[in-house]
Structures are given as structure tokens and as C-alpha cells.
């Protein structure tokens, strides 16, 4: 489980996002990161049973993203992220693909899966798969349990105009307009600090798994 002291550190970092404070509290950061790494290792074992494409040998340390922000091209010059991001990739996604992502932030944690902003050739392949086998995707995303957990899949970032090569009367046009293909579920602080947190998150990912299978099949 994620410990209270990990969330406390992130909360205080929001109001003290500077190098001086961070270095003075480096030991607290190291403990928080270790907590997240340990949690990730446990989650990987559970996730491999759900999605065999997610290797049981994943290095938990490499899955936990850096807390240091790249401020070179950003107007926001604060040097640190106020969250821990955990990327859980599946095999064959070296150049991007369907994966799972856990975001740990006080009051704003969530688990997500799918493919965020696919590169051009992958986006083209996914749209082609939707055009050919859109029914398979709608069966997944219109399932009442899926909608209850993740909301309206079609209500995410999409084109304002028609995608190239597709007509307005295409039965799946709203899916073809999508720029990302993400399912996301918010998690409370209580949920991520629970002894059953890893099981809860893995169970949610099991509901995302069919979506990831559809997306992976599209870009094979």
C-alpha cells in the first residue's frame, strides 16, 4: 500500500517546490520513492497474471518515472513533479503502445490504460481497425460495467473535423475522431493507502485489459 508519509511528502512539495527544500527533505523523498517502488513490484506480479504481455520480470525501479521535471520548454519552472507516475508497459511497446499507468497524487490519484496520443502510423492503424472491426471495440467500451468504471470512452480528446479518408456517415465516426484511446478511473487516498490497494488496482486493470488487447492487435 501507499503510505501516509508518501502522500504527506507530495502535499508539502506543492508548497515548497524548490531545490533547497527538496534537498533538505531528500531522505523523505527517498523513503517515499522506495514505498512506491515496493508497491509497484507487488502490482507487477498481480498484473502479469491479468495481462501476460506485461512481463513479471519488469524492473519496478524503471517503471517509476522521474520526479524531476524537464523545464527547458515549459513556462512552469518548478523543478519537481507533485506526483509519482508509474508506467507499466507491455511487450512490443518500445515505440509506444497500449499500456497501464498509475498516477499517485494526494486527492488526484488514478489508474489508466489504453494508448495516449498514438504516433501517426499507430493512429492510422487503430483507426483502420475501428473501421474494420468497430463492433469489437463498442462491445468493450459500451459494456455497462466499463461505462460505470471509466465513463464515456467517446468523450475524450478528438478531432473537430473528420479524419482523413473517413466519411461523416461512418457508423463509428465518433471513435474514428479520437486522438487518444484511454480508460481512466479515479482513486481516493483511502483506496491507495488500503492493504488491498494493489488488488483493487489490478482488478480495475483487468477491466481495461480487453481494450488494450484491441489496441495491440491493431498495431501488430
UniProtKB/TrEMBL annotation:
Taxonomic superkingdom: Bacteria
InterPro entries associated with the record: CHP02453 (IPR012808), UCP028451 (IPR015996)
One of the Pfam families matching this protein, by short name: DUF2461
NCBIfam families reported in the protein's UniProt record: TIGR02453 family protein
Entry protein name: DUF2461 domain-containing protein
Amino acid at each position: 500500500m501507499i503510505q501516509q508519509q508518501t502522500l504527506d511528502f507530495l502535499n508539502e512539495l506543492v508548497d515548497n517546490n524548490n531545490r533547497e527544500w527538496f534537498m533538505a527533505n531528500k531522505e523523505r523523498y527517498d523513503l517515499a520513492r522506495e514505498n512506491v517502488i515496493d508497491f509497484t513490484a507487488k502490482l507487477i506480479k498481480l498484473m502479469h497474471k491479468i495481462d501476460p504481455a506485461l512481463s513479471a520480470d519488469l524492473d519496478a525501479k524503471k517503471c517509476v518515472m522521474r520526479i524531476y521535471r524537464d523545464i527547458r520548454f515549459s513556462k512552469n519552472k518548478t523543478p519537481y513533479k507533485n506526483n509519482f507516475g508509474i508506467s507499466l508497459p507491455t511487450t512490443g511497446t518500445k515505440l509506444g503502445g497500449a499500456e497501464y499507468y498509475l498516477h499517485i497524487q494526494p486527492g488526484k490519484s488514478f489508474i489508466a490504460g489504453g494508448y495516449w496520443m498514438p504516433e501517426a502510423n499507430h493512429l492510422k492503424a487503430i483507426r483502420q481497425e475501428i473501421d474494420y472491426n468497430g463492433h469489437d471495440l463498442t462491445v468493450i467500451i459500451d459494456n455497462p460495467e466499463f461505462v460505470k468504471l471509466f465513463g464515456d470512452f467517446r468523450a475524450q480528446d478528438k478531432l473537430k473535423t473528420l479524419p482523413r479518408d473517413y466519411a461523416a456517415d461512418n457508423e463509428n465516426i465518433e471513435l474514428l475522431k479520437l486522438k487518444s484511446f484511454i480508460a481512466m478511473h479515479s482513486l481516493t487516498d483511502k483506496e491507495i493507502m488500503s492493504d488491498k490497494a494493489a488488488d483493487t488496482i489490478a482488478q480495475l486493470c483487468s477491466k481495461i485489459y480487453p481494450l488494450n488487447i484491441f489496441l495491440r492487435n491493431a498495431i501488430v
